[in-house]
Design goal:
Blueprint lengths: L13 E5 L3 H12 L3 E5 L5 H4 L5 E3 L13 E4 L4 H14 L2 E4 L12 E5 L2 E5 L6 H14 L3 H19 L3 H16 L7 H20 L1
The structure holds ligand PQ2 and nicotinamide-adenine-dinucleotide (NAD).
Length: about 210
């Protein structure tokens, strides 16, 4: 069965990463970007991880019990049997866990990610091929100019305005779709004057329908 893409607020969530090598490094960077609080535990943690600011590094073996304190656990040691133990421990206790070398024991996978501010696209092949994920990520990355960040933010504000001022759901949807079209016809930049003109048109139409 294909995997469901669920977007999670990681701000302040406690993540324990067991393992301190290449795989751990990539996952740490990914999680850190989205605001997680990270502790890394491994007998030997690589210098690239030690150089990351704002994470806790413990160079020791892991005691499974400590994982109870985590919201999310990543098992990325070189030892498959230890990764599996961590996976099983977490699954038995309902703790979200990614096991770098064991999809079956993972309750979530890491997607390829394209970020434009709050606009986030995640790509997964359900563990079939990270090489395919990487290709698709690169394709989408080229397709999305950085202007989408500002457009997303602006559309957030215009959506709030429309929610207050346009009572008809159908009209509101039409208005917001039109705003996006206006932006796309202008290299993804939404001109506020044009946007307000469009919204005014829909405010009037909405009022007219209510008074009819
Ligand atoms: C998307 C991305 C996110 C991320 O992790 O950053 C990602 N791997 C990335 C990069 C990457 N991965 C690997 C290298 C080689 C260099 C290296 O070893 O470091 C590189 C670097 C590169 O290619 O540039 C090796 C590798 N990866 C996995 C295995 C095991 C296996 O295949 O069985 C092995 C072989 C290990 C071995 O040989 O022993 C497994 C997984 N990798 C996943 C995601 C999940 C499935 C995603 C899906 O199904 O689509 C899954 C199942 C695990 C998970 O969820 O953790 C990121 C995409 C790149 C991008 O977007 O730029
Ligand atoms: N999912 C992915 O994206 C991905 C990518 C590469 C590798 N992998 C898998 O991840 C695992 C790690 O790969 P890597 O390239 O990071 O290896 P690595 O050799 O760079 O790092 C291994 C880490 O495991 C730690 N370790 C070893 N014994 C440990 C123990 N008893 N307890 C805690 N930590 C211990 C080491 O200290 C080291 O920090 C492998 O199983 C590999 O197949 C997954």
């Amino acid at each position: 069965m294909a995997y469901f893409p669920m977007y999670i607020d990681l701000e302040g969530k406690k993540v324990i990463v067991v393992g301190g090598g290449k795989a751990a490094l990539r996952k740490i960077n990914s999680l850190l970007y989205f605001g997680a609080k990270i502790a890394v535990i491994a007998p030997k943690v690589c210098d690239d991880i030690k150089a990351i600011k704002g994470i806790n590094v413990h160079e020791s073996n892991v005691a499974l019990d400590i994982l109870q304190n985590a919201d999310i656990v990543v098992a990325a040691t070189r030892r498959p049997e230890i990764n599996a133990k961590i996976g099983t421990y977490c699954n038995d206790r309902g703790i979200m866990v990614n096991v770098a070398d064991n999809k079956e024991l993972s309750s979530f996978l890491f997607p390829g990610v394209i970020v434009r501010g709050d606009l986030v696209v995640g790509v997964t092949t359900g563990g079939n091929s990270q090489a395919v994920s990487k290709q698709i990520r690169n394709m989408i990355d080229r397709m999305l100019p950085e202007e989408y960040e500002a457009l997303t933010r602006k559309m957030g504000a215009y959506t709030e305005l429309a929610n207050v001022n346009i009572k008809s759901t159908a009209l509101r949807e039409e208005a917001l779709d039109e705003l996006v079209k206006v932006a796309l016809s202008n290299k993804c930049v939404l001109d506020d004057k044009k946007a307000n003109k469009v919204l005014d048109k829909y405010y009037r139409e909405d009022a007219a329908r209510r008074n009819a």
